[in-house]
Backbone:
């Protein structure tokens, strides 16, 4: 089954053709980084306008790269939640029009479910159940994946996401957007214990996360040093920030794995590309003799191939939509609605 997928939840316009949920026939992404870098982050109105400009050519290239036409696909999948509402609407409306004109089924896909499916593309033999840490600029979830469309959230951030914390810390240190990527880059070789940052925990909810206090601690450390005229070692402070964030993530992840008896651990989302997080998870899984699944680096960020993969399983579960499908800025991962 060949699915044409469209992804436009934030600032990347993506289109892909995926076969049977596991094989990528094409995967095209038009990045807007150079257009948002001057603002230090994504400007929603600019992002949605650029999706309008790019989506037709991106979808056309994805079809060309796969060597098929839209009518030769079996279904159209699209990200419909969560994300920037203006950006989502561009993708949803384009996909609805394409599905109507070709007579193909329309499959709504939750963005975070798509991120989890990126592991199916990287590991063709991976099957649920497994425990997945989904971490990005806007989300931090600890998810029990019992089936391809059966999810239970057992931990989530109460405020800022892990990626948000690293992005804002990078900005305070004067690094360009995308902050998390650049923070990871400049921190290599830095001393992760040079600065002492908090490791917040959430009372009465042992698997939830909280990163706002950690973010504030980093920003305050930068400002205080500036006011005193002290020079900041960016590599050391960046490494210390990343060390604290990833400690919080892996502590909850492996505590949950121990409690629920999971032997398969997965990472997903943009922050799953972070070199420190990957290294810590590899080390702990080796010590505990657990299987670790991490998306290929090119599939960690937003892309349409992951939407096509999850779309396949949503289709098999009967999750299709009609022309009334709408976009939603927020939507629970475990209980999506159409």
Residues:
């Amino acid at each position: 089954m060949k699915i044409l997928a469209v992804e436009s939840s934030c600032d990347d316009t993506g289109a892909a053709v995926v076969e049977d949920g596991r094989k990528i026939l094409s995967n095209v992404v038009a990045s807007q980084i150079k257009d948002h870098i001057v603002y230090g982050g994504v400007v929603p109105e600019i992002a949605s306008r650029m999706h309008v400009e790019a989506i037709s050519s991106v979808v056309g290239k994805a079809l060309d790269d796969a060597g098929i036409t839209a009518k030769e696909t079996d279904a159209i999948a699209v990200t419909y939640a969560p994300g920037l509402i203006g950006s989502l609407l561009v993708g949803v409306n384009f996909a609805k029009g394409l599905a109507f004109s070709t007579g193909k089924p329309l499959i709504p896909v939750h963005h975070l479910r798509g991120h989890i499916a990126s592991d199916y593309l990287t590991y063709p033999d991976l099957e649920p159940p497994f425990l997945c840490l989904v971490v990005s600029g806007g989300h931090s979830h600890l998810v029990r994946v019992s089936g391809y469309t059966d999810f239970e959230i057992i931990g989530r951030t109460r405020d800022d996401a892990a990626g948000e914390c690293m992005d804002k810390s990078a900005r305070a240190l004067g690094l360009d957007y995308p902050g998390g990527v650049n923070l990871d880059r400049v921190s290599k070789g830095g001393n992760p214990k040079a600065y002492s940052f908090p490791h917040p925990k959430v009372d009465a909810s042992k698997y939830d996360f909280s990163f706002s206090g950690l973010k504030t601690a980093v920003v305050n450390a930068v400002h205080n040093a500036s006011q005193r005229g002290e020079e900041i070692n960016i590599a050391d402070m960046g490494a210390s920030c990343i060390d604290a964030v990833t400690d919080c993530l892996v502590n909850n992840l492996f505590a949950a794995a121990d409690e629920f008896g999971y032997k398969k651990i997965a990472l997903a989302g943009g922050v799953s590309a972070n070199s420190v997080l990957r290294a810590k998870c590899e080390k702990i899984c080796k010590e505990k003799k657990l299987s670790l699944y991490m998306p290929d680096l090119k599939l960690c960020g937003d892309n349409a191939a992951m939407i096509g993969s999850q779309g396949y399983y949503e289709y098999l579960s009967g999750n299709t939509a009609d022309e009334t499908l709408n976009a939603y800025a927020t939507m629970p991962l475990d209980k999506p609605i159409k």
